Predict the structure.
Amino acid sequence: MKTTDIKKVFDSFNKFNILIIGDVMIDSYMWGKVNRISPEAPVPIIMSTHQENRLGGAANVALNIQALGAKPILCSVVGKDSKAKTFYSLLKKQELTSEGIMEDEDRKTTVKTRIISNNQHLLRVDEEVDYELNKEIEKKFIVHIVKILSTTKVNAIIFEDYDKGCITPMVIKKVVEFANKNNIPTLVDPKRRNFLEYKNVTLFKPNFKELVEGSKIDIKKGDFDGIFKASKKLHKELSIKYMLVTLSELGVFISYNNSFKTIPAEVRDIADVSGAGDTIISIASLCLAADLNPELIASISNLAGGLVCEKVGVVPIDKKQLLDETIQKFS
């Protein structure tokens, strides 16, 4: 690709609306110092110095979409609780719309609190429920999503599944049916519960572990023929167009039209792999909306995933940095 063509693709991202359906959460961090052990039990006492709340789960995908210049529309169900108010304030702070968010008084807004001292992760406390939406809320949620899709031009839909119950088989079925009738590409970042429910989607992005568990084929990580065998099985069972498998230090694998391609990982100073999957599905959705070929989608997504691994913590992709690296690699 010419440099001007690559720039045009990245500029086109600014016109796209990407709908993200999935489990949202608050990532809460408590930092402090440990100076002594508790007299009550053999556990450290942490003197808290400061705390911070960040958007997490599917909301981190929205932050990546936003960082790439597109407009994210986040669809999820939170609790009717004080933590939901915190979640809304975080959305507002990031200038993200809450139009796709619904509340359910029987659910709890997911919060994951990490306690850290001297850069050491001591403990994580999860406040959540992970059962599926009840039928009444599920129906309202589907109607709500379809209404947004019917009144807003959406260029791609991402299912960001964390197995917390917001995405149900019926949500998947109805949204994918609508998308396919209206030529909207669908992308999936799956988890175990709904793995085999994602039929007729455009791009399916499991990691290696999820592929092995979902296909029930025992494969070694570097066995690309074995990975292709597993992907072909899922292509057939789920009628998927593209299968993008993330392989961490081995890069990514993409299969389509009964063939496959592997893109090796870039040599980088890895600081933290957290959030790399969110970044990869985000850039893949925009590249798919821009009508790029599957190998380019996989290659640019691979670059993006590597870039965020150089940063500590879950951080959105830097669009300019990704553009510069894409130009350097492909022009």
